[in-house]
Design brief:
The complex is a heterodimer of chains A (375) and B (396).
Chain A lengths: L25 H9 L4 H27 L7 H7 L7 H12 L8 H17 L7 H19 L15 H27 L4 H16 L2 H15 L8 H26 L3 H9 L4 H16 L1 H14 L11 H9 L9 H30 L7
Helix pairs in contact in A: 4-7, 4-14, 5-6, 5-7, 7-8, 7-10, 7-13, 7-14, 8-10, 9-10, 10-12, 10-13, 11-12, 13-15, 14-15
Chain B lengths: L9 H5 L6 H34 L29 H33 L5 H15 L3 H15 L7 E4 L2 E4 L2 E4 L1 E2 L5 H29 L6 H18 L6 E2 L2 E2 L4 E2 L2 E3 L1 H27 L3 H9 L4 H31 L3 H4 L4 H12 L2 H30 L5
Antiparallel strand pairs in B: 1-2, 2-3, 3-8, 4-5, 6-7
Classes of the chains: A mainly alpha (375), B mainly alpha (396).
Chain lengths: 375, 396
């Protein structure tokens, strides 16, 4: 190099070496970047670490160390809040999971739930996506009803008012979603239709439902629906609530689908028309496949909301998961003090389902986009 | 058929043909309207018959009868001899109170957590992500029930009320806190605040016009805030510096005086705010991420300071993405406040529910609930459309 500093005497004095650059690699570099990057960052790190040290040991003591796992009331009472009484779940899990279903017959809701879950997993598996899935779903729903309701194949009759817990939650959400989806697509198409009367009907429906809380729709299903029916005709409360949930979910889903429809350029419609496709052919073969693909994450969000919303039916006295906890504990003075643990248990169930759905939606989003990405 | 061979007056004939799109459109619409009218007629006539047969009275005349039930927590005066319409009004004010306080807390929490999810600090990011994933994946009803239960279980009874700060008592009876005693001079403070706000606005206009004229940017935010605060303090001094506070006092059996909220209110507000904050955090995060990084780079290459980058480049673009879903969340929170019925907070829906059980007027009570919520939602939606039209990117 030419930049050599030399003094007038011709002697050679090297420039002092620069300090080594701050380490940006390895564990130290990672710590510096991610935990102590600035004053604020350092403060945040220290605060969070302090908070974790303060709260986590106490929580672990409560949840694990001092906890009682056996269904032993005396031991649980003796804890006096120092530990969790998971025994309440060991004692009551069947009542919580299956509600008031006859105790000796509870293999039936268990089998029905297992069948439904297996079908849900199968529907999420890409190699299995085909027309057969639809038929399989119908078979599974039929099997679900046979198992739950009985009355055939030597199974005893169990009326729907004794259904409860997880199978009821799954039933309400899957049927709600399955029925809401086609309705939502129709309403979304109707809302973008050129026919003013159809458009108005769809707009009124969507805005009316989206403007009111679900609980008022459920009240309507439970209190007003019986008045709507002709004399002597009474519809099962489960069906009424299902209709309410479906109508509610469809309104929100319709807006999601409409968002997708709006994103399709009008050139697609024009190209389809120039090929001589009819309105329904255009929608079915050209527009909807593209539109629905665009809004997969929002559709999944809608599904998650519907799943969570099924917990509201407990307010109109259907004992799905949330309601069955009250059912299991409120009448039992021995176990009533341990509501917190039971609530945590079903919160964990809800959480696993919702979290799995949201993760799955991210996976689908990535996979459906594969065809569109150019290397 | 032989007729088809004859030349036909095409336009005339096709207007009434199934092959005409316009004609089919008319038919579809007529069919749709008739089906809906039929269904409506069917349901209405059934309902009327049922009401007559079961001897249920209908109509809104019950609204002027005395309600006959007390309400634990009211913003306006209410006792059981007051008519039903007043009970509904109390319920509505209670709903609005929960909604406003819940929205304020949720917005602050949600914004902070949303920004935290973008932090460079690994721990902070992790905590914020965990918060979002935990709270938005559990049904809000379950969360409300849990908060209510925890408040009832963890808090001490009224006699041993916690006293974390002077004048603040927290117990199973609720939260009691000091409130300023209403003095006649308070009007002056409000007037001072209004005058301060007006002056601050005028200053901002002046500063902006100076910027346009001379190109010299003046600080806007801090002086405007200072003017506003001076206005309030001025009003307070002019009112004779009233400092009297109504402090809650702990007696042998209860905590009296001051302002107070019930555990139901605490659980509902806290639960709704915590749940909604998780959604708001996601909205804020995605709104900020929606602004391309090049915008910030361009802004720094223009020499804007970090604050001005945020204020002039990042926020205006992010807010355009954030505001519409944010309003949706506000509406969701308001609608979710109807779950108060599950924990016994007297909001509009619980009061309608009580009224429904007392009077049996299901149709009327549910109509009232729906009408109130619809009015709120539709007016918010109208406001949002106006706002969106205002901030939309102007295109040709």
């Amino acid at each position: 190099m030419s930049a050599i500093s030399a003094d007038s005497a011709g002697g050679f004095t090297p420039v002092a070496a620069r300090p080594a650059p701050v380490v940006t690699r390895g564990a130290v570099g990672w710590l510096r970047r991610n935990l102590f990057g600035s004053v604020g960052s350092t403060l945040a790190t220290l605060t969070i670490v302090a908070a974790l040290f303060y709260y986590v040991p106490g929580f672990i003591d409560w949840a694990v160390v001092n906890a009682v796992a056996q269904p032993d009331v005396a031991a649980c009472r003796a804890l006096d809040g120092a530990g969790a009484c998971w025994g309440v779940i060991a004692e009551k899990y069947r009542l919580i999971l299956f509600g008031r279903f006859p105790f000796d017959e509870q293999w039936r809701p268990l089998a029905a739930t297992g069948l439904m879950l297996a079908m849900l997993v199968a529907s999420c598996t890409r190699p299995l996506w085909s027309r057969w899935l639809l038929i399989a779903w119908m078979v599974v729903f039929a099997a679900f009803f046979v198992l739950m309701h009985g009355g055939v194949l030597g199974l005893s009759d169990v009326e729907t008012d004794r259904w409860g817990g997880l199978p009821l939650t799954l039933l309400l959400s899957t049927i709600g979603i399955a029925a809401a989806f086609p309705l939502a697509v129709l309403v979304a198409l109707g809302r973008r239709s050129h026919l003013p009367a159809l458009r108005t009907i769809c707009i009124v429906y969507v805005e009316l439902i989206r403007g009111v809380p679900l609980i008022s729709v459920l009240f309507m299903a439970s209190f007003m629906f019986p008045l709507f029916m002709p004399q002597g005709v009474s519809i099962n409360v489960l069906v009424r609530v299902l209709v309410g949930i479906t109508l509610f979910a469809a309104a929100y889903l319709a807006e999601v689908v409409r968002g997708g429809l709006q994103a399709i350029p009008s050139g697609q419609h024009e190209a389809a028309a120039s090929l001589g496709l009819s309105y329904w052919q255009t929608q079915r073969k050209i527009v909807l496949p593209q539109a629905l693909r665009l809004v997969v994450p929002s559709i999944m969000n809608s599904f998650i909301s519907t799943f969570k919303d099924t917990s509201l039916v407990t307010i109109v006295s259907l004992y799905e998961l949330t309601g069955s906890v009250t059912l299991a504990l409120a009448g039992d003075s021995n176990w009533r003090p341990f509501f917190t643990e039971a609530y945590l248990f079903i919160a964990a169930i809800y959480w696993v389902f919702c979290f799995a759905m949201s993760r799955y939606s991210q996976w689908v989003e990535q996979h459906l986009n594969v065809g569109h990405r150019r290397a | 058929m032989a007729d088809t061979l004859a030349p036909k007056p095409a336009l005339q004939r096709r207007r009434w043909s199934w092959r005409s799109q316009a004609f089919r459109g008319v038919v579809y619409q007529v069919v749709a309207i008739s089906v809906i009218a039929l269904v409506a007629w069917f349901l209405t006539s059934n309902t009327l018959t049922n009401l007559r047969v079961r001897g249920i009275q209908s109509g809104f005349d019950f609204l002027i009868q005395p309600a006959g039930f007390g309400i634990g927590e009211t913003v306006i005066e209410f006792d059981s001899s007051n008519p039903y319409w007043k009970a509904f009004l109390v319920g509505l004010t209670n709903t609005i109170r929960v909604a406003i306080i819940g929205i304020l807390i949720a917005t602050v929490m949600g914004t902070l957590i949303g920004i935290g999810r973008l932090s460079r600090n690994f721990l902070l990011r992790g905590v914020c992500t965990a918060y979002v994933e935990l709270f938005r994946n559990i049904p809000v009803l379950l969360q409300l029930l849990m908060w209510y239960l925890l408040l009832n279980e963890l808090l001490p009874p009224v006699i041993d009320a916690l006293n974390p700060a002077p004048g603040i008592y927290l117990s199973k009876g609720g939260l009691a806190f000091p409130v300023p005693v209403w003095a006649p001079g308070f009007g002056l403070i409000v007037a001072g605040a209004l005058a301060g706000a007006a002056l601050a606005w005028l200053y901002r206009r002046w500063a902006l016009s100076q910027f346009v004229l001379t190109g010299r940017a003046r600080p806007v935010w801090w002086p405007a805030l200072a003017i506003f605060v001076v206005g309030i303090v001025g009003g307070w001094v002019a009112a004779g510096t009233p400092t009297a506070l109504d402090m809650p006092e702990k007696t042998q059996f209860n905590v009296a005086g001051g302002g107070a909220v019930t555990p139901e209110f605490l659980a509902l507000t806290m639960g709704l705010a915590i749940y909604t904050a998780a959604f708001i955090a996601e909205i804020v995060r995605s709104g900020i991420q929606a602004v391309p990084w090049g915008q910030i780079e361009a802004a720094s290459s223009l020499g804007l300071t970090r604050n001005r980058q945020l204020k002039l480049v990042l926020l205006p673009q992010a807010l355009r993405v954030i505001i519409p879903p944010l309003t949706n969340q506000y509406l969701n929170l308001t609608k979710n406040s109807s779950l108060a019925v599950a924990i016994g907070y007297p909001d509009l829906v619980s009061i309608s529910n009580t009224t429904l059980n007392q009077t049996g007027r299901a149709v009327e009570c549910i109509t009232i609930i729906m009408a109130v919520y619809l009015t709120m939602s539709l007016s918010t939606a109208a406001l949002m459309n106006w706002y969106n039209a205002r901030v939309a990117i102007k295109e040709r």
